[in-house]
Amino acid sequence: MAPQRPMPRLDAAKLRQNALTSIRLGVEDFERCRLNGDAGGDPARALSAIRNLFAGVLLLFKYKIATCVDNPEDAAALIFNPPEVLPHSDGNGGIEWVPAGKFRPTTIDVATIQKRFEAFRIEVDWAVINKLQACRNHLEHLHPAHTLGEVADFVAELFPVLRDFIQTELEELPASILGDAWQIMLLHHNFFVDTTEQCAEAWSDACVPQGMEPWLEECKCPQCSSTLLAPVQANLDAADTVESNDDIFQATCMACGHTTLIAPLMIDALERAHSYDPRDGEEPSVESCNLCSRDTFLIDEQSCLWCAAELEYTECEICDEGLRQEDQDNDGLCSYHAHSYEKFMRDD
Description:
There is one protein chain. By secondary structure, the protein is mainly alpha-helical. 47% of the residues lie in helices and 8% in strands. The chain is built from 12 helices and 8 strands. The chain is flat, with a radius of gyration of 28 Å.
């Protein structure tokens, strides 16, 4: 068997420096993408902001893993992707598992970082990290000019994760190792939290249908993808409500100023969550409500999220088959037994 080639070298100090540099560059890109052109802004920097920030966080995670052991070779083994392990005969009728090849020059991915963290009991909010990764992957396929709001949300959600990790796991002060970049993130996070609270308070006066409130939270600005949407003050002043005046009730994006009807955004969010593929034999789980004519009737729940309409008849009185909206005129019978009853009455 050929001898194993030496493992790639790992410079933990360099890893740390690269992580902090990436985060600082990401924050600089974030600042540039939000400025207008006259002030030197560049919307195309939005995508590089996401890339640099997320890359910097992952590098910082890898640095922490590397510091969990004293031997540099052990640290490298934790960071670099290991060779594949394959079975070989031991010559005595058994097997032995032997690495095939060498440690690859590539480092571990997000999923493997999570496994390393679990093994060494390193705490981080993985729900947020996975959400941020999905955001990064999503933005890779969009034009940067249409992602400014989503980038702003990304930075706001990253802030507490980065703060807690640096303070708790690295036992350092974020302001000390990130400098001005940290102050920018802090100011933006505070703005985001304050604006989110203001938007939520304003929507409480807009009479959003109770069943649609979770989908209001999922709405994003169609122009910049920000979640900072507030009801238009003119609608509130006119005593309009989302529930009754959805054809005119508008929302304004606090990030870019774009104004649009809020009801279609909520219904689109609901439909995305209940998307289906008929090619796989799936059936729709949302349909138009017979009472309010909005596409907000949940078939499985037998109720409308908008007007709270429910089915009068839920099961066939004869066969106990579940009934749907189209069966309500059959007086508690499924279509088969309703047809059979009508045929019987005609023949009688």
